[in-house]
Write a structure and sequence with these properties.
Two copies of one chain form a homodimer.
Chain A (H helix, E strand, L loop, with lengths): L1 H22 L6 H8 L3 H7 L3 H24 L4 H14 L1 H7 L4 H10 L3 H22 L6 H22 L2 H17 L1
The first copy, chain A, binds a DNA duplex (18 and 18 nucleotides) through helix 1 and helix 3.
DNA sequence: GTCTATACCGAGATAGAC
DNA sequence: GTCTATCTCGGTATAGAC
């Protein structure tokens, strides 16, 4: 049945997204993913020809997640409120972020070092996020500098995720988002 | 002879630092390191009982590198000039940073996810860097907020390294360091 | 479409001659 | 101290029965 297949495939993707977030892409074996998804190892290869294809599926998943969230942020109203909604989302995830880091940053770093083209595709996730932020700054009348402002905002967030994860300290996320909120307010 | 041993050991560490920076710790095999250092694989285990010990040696190397550089920055004069010296160092490395990312951030992320205690030790590198920055902000009379300022500065840098690496775009490093320089000036 | 068994390879680590 | 040969395990991927 098709419904069965779709179900297994989505279970595999779900497991892959979770496990690679927790342990990294290289350290997550297809056997681990299969086990978590309750699919026999050999069957994985019916849905994904190679591990690289699993990686692509993870990226697609992250992209559609981001799209969904950015639509939610858009509903917050004015550009400043949208950006604040984004920061609020970060704050709500502070504990997970401190425990395991950003799901995107280390994933991109790892894939870039691996070579093989997956890294470039993964970068699309940041590309979209950056584009969304830039649009908000443009709407705030910061057309000249909108790119730089977006880079600064996303950099600050990605960086504090690295530090919070390194020290397992969610308070760093609180500190930095407060500062960024203030900064947005004063722009 | 001891001199031979020391020489081989340092060659191995040098190779380990380089290769793990380029390809990540997990993806760098002891065979790769041995080959680059021109030491037979079996002999590696005379100097390091396990790969984990190689990881520790890499961390020690990074720590002493940072110590050396922070002493150079200290010679720039007043606190603001010291911070600018640090940023200037970043700028001088922009091409390498865009090509391969930060040597510390992804390394810490990877080791944290691996578990096993190496990650915590690696975090010491950021700990020292943060402490140095904090000292500069204190000296600028920002005692209240010195921790938050240091976190913001290091986060911004680490984050832009992730973005610059992802997009292989050294210009992002230029943009962000300019902004941070300005920010320091206005504090 | 599904699953078991297995081929194959590269990794960390060890044995033991020199 | 040094180096070759090898063990062992875990990973990706495939073969082929059902």
């Amino acid at each position: 049945m098709r419904s069965q297949s779709v179900d297994k495939r989505s279970r595999l993707i779900r497991a892959a997204v979770e496990l690679t977030y927790l342990h990294g892409f290289a350290k997550t074996s297809l056997a681990d993913i299969a086990k978590q998804a309750k699919v026999p190892l050999g069957n994985v290869y019916y849905y994904f020809k190679t591990k690289k294809e699993v990686g692509e599926a993870i990226i697609e998943q992250r992209l559609s997640d981001l799209e969904a969230r950015s639509k939610e942020w858009d509903e917050a109203g004015a550009p400043r409120d949208r950006l604040r909604a984004c920061l609020l989302g970060v704050l709500e995830n502070k504990e997970v972020l401190a425990a395991h880091g950003c799901p995107v940053g280390p994933f991109c770093s790892e894939l870039r070092k691996e070579g093989g083209g997956l890294g470039k595709r993964a970068g699309e996730i940041f590309g979209r996020h950056l584009a969304w932020m830039e649009a908000q700054f443009k709407a705030l009348g910061k057309g000249n500098d909108s790119r730089g402002l977006a880079v600064h905002l996303l950099s600050s967030l990605e960086g504090v995720f690295v530090l919070a994860h390194t020290f397992r300290d969610s308070h760093l996320v609180v500190m930095e988002t407060k500062r960024l909120n203030q900064w947005i307010q004063e722009l």
